[in-house]
Amino acid sequence: MFITLEGIEGSGKTTQMATISRFLEGSGHACVLTKEPGGTPIGEKIRAILLDPEHRQLDAMAELLLYTADRAQHVSQQIKPALDAGKTVICDRFYDSTIVYQGAARGINAGVIRELNRLVLYNVAPDITFLLDLPPEVGLSRAWNEIRSGGRDDSESRFEREKLLFHEKVRQGYLQLAAAEPQRFRIIDASMPARDVGKAIISELQQFMET
Ligand code: TMP
After folding, report:
1. What pTM was computed for the model?
2. Which of 148, 162, 137 is nearest to 50 (CA)?
3. For a Cys-Cys bond, which of 55, 82, 165, 188 suits 87, CB 3.0-4.6 Å?
């Protein structure tokens, strides 16, 4: 099973990854937890380029190609071998992030992005995607609190520095994707306390696994 989590900055994906894996491991599923960008050693280097706040000049197409390069490495080295071995992969962001950040928010043609994705997916696709949805003002303020308290490194804050409008486009892009693929997406209200978000996710996951 391949599970992905999506959402704007500060939506709490990292916390919920752990909740999902505890639940699944508890019911006998071997889980691999991973993320994009940066799910492999090579990907970690690509991540550092992508998230460095000093890289304000990074060209939108160069950005898209770097995310795609990270995904090619990640799918071939990590995700596909784990799925082939019968493991459950839980991934913090996947191709939906590219469609909304580089497509809906940066304005690159969605067809171009989908074609690039297709080249690097090796037929891998998420079975279920949790969209942790909340207003960008709330998400960004949480994300900045985390950076200020040292929970997240300032050297990875390039996207947090984007304008509120950018994050609003990301949120709307996600909601559109979820509306277009209701069988795959589960929209979760991420403005609730983390405990309640976790309960909502597990309840949806249980239902999904029973069908
Ligand atoms: P995160 O690992 O803390 O979620 O940060 C990753 C950042 O990269 C986040 O701001 C979203 C962005 N991103 C894209 O713009 N496109 C992508 O394809 C992916 C995977 C992430």
Report:
1. 0.96
2. 162
3. 82
